[in-house]
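Dear support,

We are seeing what looks like truncated structure output for some complexes. This example has two components. We would appreciate it if you could run it in full and send us the complete token output so we can diff it against ours.
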Amino acid sequence: MSLNAKSVQKDFPRAGKNSNVFTAVHPIDFNLQPGKIIEITGRSGSGKSTLLNMLSGILKPTSGQVLLDGTDLYTLDDNELSRLRNKNIGLIPQGHTALLGLSILENVMLPAILYSSSPAPRDRAMELLTQVRLEEMANEKPNELSGGELRRMAVARALLMSSQYILADEPTAGLDEENILSVMNLLRKTADNGSAVLLVTHEQEAARFADEILTMDGGRFI
Amino acid sequence: MLTLKNLPVKNLNSYPGRTIAMLIFAGLMSAAVFGGMLIIRGLRQGLESVQSRLGADILVTPEDADNDFDAQTFLIQAEPGYFYMDASKLDQIRAVEGVETASPQMFLASATSSCCSAKLQIIAFDPDTDFTIQPWIRETFHGAQKLGKMDVIVGANVTVYDDHILRLYNNDCRVIGQFAPTGYSLDNAVYTDFETIKVLITSSFDTKLNKYQPFNTEDVISSVLVRVKNGYDAGDVANKIKNSVSGLNTTATKSMVSKIADSLSSISTSVHVFTIVILFVGALMTILIFLMMINERTREFASLRAMGASRNILSYIVIGEAVFINLLGGLIGIIASAVVIIGFSGVIREKLGIGFTPPSPRHIIIPAFFGIVVALLAAVAACLAAVKRVNRLDVSLVLKEGE
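Here is the complete output from our reference environment:
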């Protein structure tokens, strides 16, 4: 079980007539290990989120490979890659990611119904909502929740499928101290249960939950 | 329960304003197509029906009946009227070259007084020679209905309140059947044979409600329906009748319906233009509103991708939303349109000025099918643009932009 980045690099075209490209991530090797939380810190624009997105299979690297159990994610077709991500990668993106037409509970259950006609795992979803202290909001619609509550909902949703890999981009952004602790405890517990967790964060408090801390600057680890 | 199948409907619930707007436009499109087809079909059916009911090539009336009979408006807005001519004219007409069959009719109008159930046009035919009303009777009642003494058959618009009895000049006439609607003035008449109408005419003299002085009912007829021989032109034969028998007016029945056919043609053109405009505006609005709705939800679609939804799943959701909303809107449009057209067929007939018969349920299926197809085509058009937009999403960029 492994999720590796091999010499992954990401260039973005610059706006403007005489533009070249902007390299967000210079060639990097990276290995996500089961049972561990790896925290990546760094200033805004240092390439943390770009690396996380490449690892999660939603941003194709300009060069290099992302290997999940030996399979290069970006050689798969869209259906194969999507199924693989749904099963193996729990992604907590930045910002609000709720579907407004669904209740909070339904939002959490969503990954489970994409490829399965079995009833959605309601009990598991409620258990996760309880762990992020949202059980009383389960039947509310997203527009009735605060930004912090929606972040916690996204954490619960990423953990629903008990994925091998949890990739979290600023999961504690906008949370108060009490909720930061509950989210970090949950991620720690997930890692202790054998998942590999990548945590991209500015949060100082997160450091004491991480097994390894890496810092990025200018698209490189320093 | 949350499933991928009901996800499109749940998504639509979160945008009620736009969902309702799309429902309205889908409903308008299907209503325009369905309603337009229904109206044109109803008008054609009315015209075909009246053509077959007239059955004759020439209608001969007395020259002095001009105040009571206008061939151009007779089928559409005839007031009950009656007039008579000498019965001997019948043999003279039969003798004219080109006449194959000639059958007399007698008319009477009932009165709006206590002697009569209502003011109605009464038309009597001669069972021995009639070739217009008896085929209609055979067709409607499958040959089973025979008119006995004081029996009548009523048109579709004649209401009979008292246990199949129609009171005409203090005579209780037994109503033995009712014709299907034609959409024309034929629906307002009461049909009987010569024996019965002679009794009614005599009674009308007794009640002093007949505009004429008493006469011998054996000596008069009101009109003669003529069928011409093969190879003869109805107009030519009509002229020959007029020239060889004095005191008559002749009308080629073709000319009676040609004005109606012209009106139908111009109404059809208007309905087609109206339908095309509605379709164009409706389809455009459906596409625009749907694209706006999809654009507003790019972050939702990016989130679905982030949790592992493939492009196919995203397409399924988008298509599901468009098809569901257009199908529902289409059905609503068809039902509303059917209710209005069938429920207000009398008003439509009055406003259009020509006969209209609401098509039977059997004939509603094809227009309903086309109404739904049009709504679904609009859904497909909306989907094509929306699916393209959703499948081109740069997921990482959208999730970052929304922050």
